[in-house]
Automatic annotation (TrEMBL):
<feature type="repeat" description="ANK">
    <location>
        <begin position="854"/>
        <end position="888"/>
    </location>
</feature>
<feature type="repeat" description="ANK">
    <location>
        <begin position="707"/>
        <end position="740"/>
    </location>
</feature>
<dbReference type="InterPro" id="IPR036770">
    <property type="entry name" value="Ankyrin_rpt-contain_sf"/>
</dbReference>
<feature type="repeat" description="ANK">
    <location>
        <begin position="889"/>
        <end position="921"/>
    </location>
</feature>
<keyword id="KW-0040">ANK repeat</keyword>
<feature type="domain" description="Nephrocystin 3-like N-terminal">
    <location>
        <begin position="51"/>
        <end position="184"/>
    </location>
</feature>
<feature type="repeat" description="ANK">
    <location>
        <begin position="540"/>
        <end position="572"/>
    </location>
</feature>
<dbReference type="InterPro" id="IPR054471">
    <property type="entry name" value="GPIID_WHD"/>
</dbReference>
<dbReference type="Pfam" id="PF22939">
    <property type="entry name" value="WHD_GPIID"/>
</dbReference>
<feature type="repeat" description="ANK">
    <location>
        <begin position="608"/>
        <end position="640"/>
    </location>
</feature>
<keyword id="KW-0677">Repeat</keyword>
<protein>
    <recommendedName>
        <fullName>NACHT domain-containing protein</fullName>
    </recommendedName>
</protein>
<feature type="repeat" description="ANK">
    <location>
        <begin position="741"/>
        <end position="773"/>
    </location>
</feature>
<dbReference type="InterPro" id="IPR002110">
    <property type="entry name" value="Ankyrin_rpt"/>
</dbReference>
<dbReference type="InterPro" id="IPR027417">
    <property type="entry name" value="P-loop_NTPase"/>
</dbReference>
<feature type="repeat" description="ANK">
    <location>
        <begin position="507"/>
        <end position="539"/>
    </location>
</feature>
<feature type="repeat" description="ANK">
    <location>
        <begin position="573"/>
        <end position="606"/>
    </location>
</feature>
Length: 1020
């Protein structure tokens, strides 16, 4: 047998992707254990370790294999994962908890999670404890792929409630994940994929010999007789054990209690040959000879959680004598194990007591229970109720009371106050003593309840367990009885007129809520038959259907729906029962039950607007998504954030959900309330895997968002790396596409001063000679924002762009520069000066008039700015602008400054040598109705003398008092706005010019065709 195990270990090292099932030969199960050396045998035979490994042949084999694997594979690229499948103390016995342990070991092996696992740990569903088994499976797969080989050793999975699901999920892992599963049946793999291992005859003989030597009393008894007796014991035990280590141990435990030779020989000749026979023989002796051991066994069997040694000793030694409780003398752990004939073991880590093996629990829970423990459940309920009935215990049960009272019966107090109801509900109504104790406890619980104060309102959710210090002082007797499912007393209270819909408590719950929450089906039926309100809501808005869905009570869901409960009623969070069920560990069982019609799936959350499909996407439940889509859920409903389920999946990077929607033909071009498509959302969130999936599904990459931009236009403006833009182009984005304003991505990059994107787009083949609908070249629309803008302009000029090119309205880049400078509320003078110098250095004509009717120069435009820009005027003059250039109606910059009352600009022009004697060509009527020959700038100053006192002959401005200047300026502004003779010049410097004759940088342009004739003299 040892050679077979070694050969198997060799097979593990060289092959992958198989499941090993350690088979048991009988229906009850045979236990094996391989002994590779005497040293291993000696270590097992120590009494201390026997408590831990009794009946654990498969577990020992698993640990032996783990040691061998760890000694063989020392590389950090190989992971060894060991999971014990069934732990009675486990708070989460579902497949989710099992997979969580596997994932934790894989993460610990690498010391850091992968991206998929990190996303899972940061998810909302993980924080709320609602992660699905599928999500864990995907994370485990991602972690497994980080190793070259992963070896899973799964032990003790036979009793797991979701054994089938767990094994199915593990078998779907990649091929380099190897599985060793110890199980009683070999139905999960082929004949060649499993081996059967049993203890050899020699190993069993060695074990029996070691037990004789270590048991002082048995060893002394054997030494009184011939050596043949010892050899007979060893041979008979090995023979009768049939390769089962557990059976050999039970045999030795039975023989160790023999105190004379005749009894020893008789027992030896009658050794049982199966586990059931061995259990029956041991129980017969225990029940007839040791009541304390019998009580230890049935308390261990029926307890709702594993008891500690002290709790079990207290419970087994508790006897009722009237109103007094006595406790027998406590025994040591060794004595307890000895008296129970080895049927109990103590967990060294937790200190809790368990049956020696799962087969022992199966045997004692069957028909044997009626023979050996006929009154066990009554006795347990009796003890629990006797412990919790005293007044001081009642006072400590409530939420707002102090700690555990110090009394002789407090050893089991926590357990009794928590689980008394479960044990009492299993006792029939004919047990009058139990019924009296229940009535006494319930009455005292009501009579001694403290007043409800703010300090006692600690929780606003239903408790998972009532226990010491956890009872609510505002619950009625019917609430407590409904919570624990005690039918007889509840029926009596109902008959006496108890309020079935009493919700006057901090949670606002009725007795029906309590019964549904705990899954007490008979109690629910009793309350509803007594006309309890099936649609009652608690303070958080939950109905009983919400609670049944949240707790996964399938039978109650069916029953409540059959009784016409309102299935679409929302709680305070706006969720229906269906929406609340999604995200629970029972979702796959409960969600189908809650869908009666198609409309049930499309009901929206009254707070978030989410449908069931939205919630399944948000919580990453692909199986639920697939089911809802199969049932016809609407994929186009918008939630309060304006998103469809597909768009929500794109936002949260839920690739599986996106794939499912694409398979179902989801409409990809549906807009969110913000005007974005699913493709826009995935790109804005940086979820490029989802983006690629949408592209494969046929999404339009050039679609506009609410601002009229495509993704490439948005990227052209963004100061980010070029990788995203490159990805868009690789996916087929049109580099010459126009947005709603008529700009290409290259123009957007130029207008935003995004030099890296501008150069990148040029490298990718974007046209440099592109023009707007108004005939503006890239030189016209590039603003003087920063150095990158100047670099773009310089690049264009080096490509032989004409610095004097005109738009359809006759504006050159220099005109655009000046207009932008006075139109901006905070112009950057340095950038403007550098921009101007750059244009002039490439031949721009600073005195070039516009090609429009007005024929204004850059200096005219600077002077007519609504906000005076003295620095700009000075800069233009410094760069060579003529101060005496006339417009089409003969006005010079000096005329324009005088008309507008811009004193400082007027003085700057005078200082630059402006001719004050020049007259405009506009005809001015006189008093004699004779046409004049025009006006000088001084005439205009005198005409508006309210704000400037101008000596006619000196040509010098005489300053006025501050108040007079202020009033004069205001009067001037009003005068200019109302004076009809200024209307024509206002079209040059005012708002009409800005809106009609040219387009400022970043302005909205027409999206009409750009096939206009080029006005520039040369292009790149």
């Amino acid at each position: 047998m040892t050679e077979r195990v070694n050969g198997y270990l060799t097979m593990i090292r060289t092959h992958s992707g198989f499941l090993v099932s350690v088979e048991r030969f009988t229906a009850l199960g045979q236990v094996f254990i391989p002994f590779k050396s005497r040293a291993i045998f000696d270590s097992i035979s120590k009494p201390k370790l026997m408590k831990r490994i009794a009946g654990a042949g498969k577990t020992f084999l698993a640990s032996t294999i783990i040691d061998s694997l760890r000694n063989t594979f020392t590389s950090a690229d190989v992971a060894i994962v060991f999971i014990f499948g069934h732990d009675e103390a486990d708070e989460d016995p579902s497949s989710v908890g099992f997979l969580d342990k596997i994932l934790a070991q894989l993460v610990y092996r690498k010391r850091a999670p992968c991206h998929a696992t990190a996303a899972l740990y940061k998810s909302k569903s993980f924080a709320e404890g609602k992660v699905s088994a599928k999500a864990y499976q995907d994370a485990i797969r991602a972690e497994v792929n980080r190793f070259s080989r992963v070896m899973f050793v799964i032990d003790g999975i036979d009793m797991h409630v979701e054994k089938e699901r767990i094994l199915n999920r593990l078998q779907k892992l990649p091929d380099h994940a190897q599985l060793l599963v110890t199980t009683r049946e070999a139905k999960y793999t082929s004949k060649d994929g499993h081996i059967s291992v049993l203890a050899t005859h020699g190993d069993l003989e060695s074990y029996a010999c070691s037990r004789i030597e270590q048991d002082e009393e048995l060893s002394a008894l054997v030494k009184q007789y011939a050596p043949e007796l010892k050899f007979a014991i060893i041979r008979q035990v090995a023979l009768k054990s049939h390769g089962l280590f557990l059976l050999a141990r039970l045999h030795m435990d039975m023989l160790s209690r023999c105190n004379d030779g005749s009894l020893l020989q008789k027992s030896l000749s009658q050794l049982p040959e199966s586990l059931n026979d061995a259990y029956g023989e041991s129980m017969t002796r225990i029940v007839s000879q040791n009541p304390f051991a019998s009580r230890c066994l049935y308390w261990t069997l029926y307890a709702q959680r594993p008891l500690t040694v002290s709790e079990l000793e207290f419970a087994a030694g508790f006897e009722l004598k009237g109103n007094n409780a006595l406790k027998e003398t406590s025994s040591s752990e060794h004595t307890m194990l000895y008296e129970t004939a080895g049927l109990l073991s103590i967990d060294a880590m937790s200190g809790t007591v368990h049956l020696v093996h799962k087969t022992a629990k199966e045997y004692l829970s069957g028909p044997a229970a009626r023979v050996f423990f006929p009154t066990a459940k009554v006795n347990i309920a009796d003890v629990c109720l006797a412990i919790i009935t005293p007044d001081e215990v009642i006072d400590g049960c409530y939420v707002n009371e102090g700690g555990t009272p110090q009394n002789p019966r407090s050893g089991l107090l926590t357990y009794a106050t928590t689980y008394w109801g479960h044990h009492a509900s299993e006792v029939g109504e004919d047990e009058q003593a139990i019924q009296v104790l229940i009535r006494a406890f319930i009455n005292k619980l009501c009579w001694r309840r403290p007043p409800v104060t703010r300090s006692s309102v600690l929780r606003l959710e239903m408790p998972k367990q009532l226990g010491f210090g956890k009872y609510f002082p505002d619950w009625s007797s019917l609430h407590v009885l409904a919570y624990f499912g005690i039918m007889e007393k509840a029926q009596r209270l109902i008959d006496q007129g108890a309020d079935l819909d009493d919700c006057d408590n901090q949670l606002g719950i009725t007795p029906l809520h309590c019964a549904v929450y705990r899954g007490n089906e008979e109690m629910v039926e009793l309350l509803l038959n007594s006309n309890a309100n099936i649609n009652a809501t608690c303070k958080d808005g939950k109905t009983v259907l919400h609670m049944a869905a949240e707790q996964g009570h399938r039978k109650l869901i069916r029953f409540l729906l059959h009784r016409r409960v309102k299935s679409r009623k929302a709680n305070q969070q706006g969720e229906t029962a269906l929406q609340l069920a999604i995200g629970t560990t029972h979702e796959e069982a409960t969600v189908p039950l809650l869908i009666k019609t198609r409309f049930d799936m499309d009901v929206q959350n009254t707070v978030t607007g989410n449908t069931a499909l939205h919630r399944a996407v948000d919580l990453r439940r692909p199986r639920i998504i697939a089911f809802l889509l199969e049932k016809g859920a609407n994929m186009n409903v918008l939630n309060r954030d304006g998103m469809t389920p597909l768009q929500l999946a794109c936002k949260t990077d839920n690739c599986e959900a996106v794939s499912l929607f694409l398979e179902r033909g989801a409409q990809l071009e549906i807009r969110s309330s913000h005007g974005t498509t699913a493709l826009h959302i995935s790109a804005l969130q940086g979820n490029w895997v989802v983006f690629d999936l949408l592209m494969i599904g046929g999404a339009d990459i050039d679609a506009w968002d609410s601002e009229g931009d495509s993704l490439l236009h948005m990227q052209a403006r963004e100061p980010s790396t070029t990788s995203i833009a490159a990805h868009l182009l690789a996916q087929g984005a049109d580099i010459e596409a126009y947005n709603s304003q008529g700009y290409t991505p290259l123009q957007c990059a130029a207008m935003s001063g995004n030099k890296p994107k501008f150069l990148f787009l040029v490298e990718q083949g974007a046209r440099l000679d592109v023009q707007t609908a108004k005939g503006e070249t890239l030189l016209h629309i590039t603003p003087p924002l920063n150095q990158d803008c100047l670099d773009i302009v310089e690049t264009l000029l080096e490509c032989r762009f004409s610095a004097n090119a005109t738009t359809l309205s006759g504006l050159t880049p220099l005109h655009h520069l000046v207009i932008n400078a006075f139109d901006s509320p905070y112009p950057s003078f340095k950038q403007t000066a550098d921009f101007l110098s750059l244009l002039l250095s490439y031949g721009a004509n600073i005195n070039a008039p516009t090609a429009s009717y007005e024929a204004v120069t850059a200096l005219h435009l600077a002077v007519t700015a609504k906000i005076p820009r003295e620095s700009l005027v000075s800069l233009l003059i410094e760069k060579g602008a003529s101060v005496d250039t006339r417009t089409s109606d003969g006005r010079t910059p000096l005329h324009l400054a005088a008309e507008r009352g811009f004193h400082d600009i007027f003085q700057i022009l005078l200082d630059a040598g402006a001719d004050i004697s020049m007259k405009d060509t506009e005809e001015t009527p006189t008093k004699d109705n004779v046409k004049g020959d025009g006006q000088t700038a001084i005439d205009l100053v005198h005409k508006h003398s309210v704000h400037v006192n101008w000596p006619a002959h000196t040509g010098k401005l005489r300053p006025l008092p501050a108040m007079q200047q202020h009033n004069g300026l205001a009067a001037t502004t009003h005068s200019l706005d109302s004076d009809s003779e200024m209307s024509q010049i206002d079209q040059i410097g005012g708002s009409s010019l800005l809106s009609e004759n040219y387009s400022n940088w970043g302005s909205r342009a027409s999206s009409t065709s750009m096939d206009l004739s080029s006005i520039i003299s040369s292009s790149c």
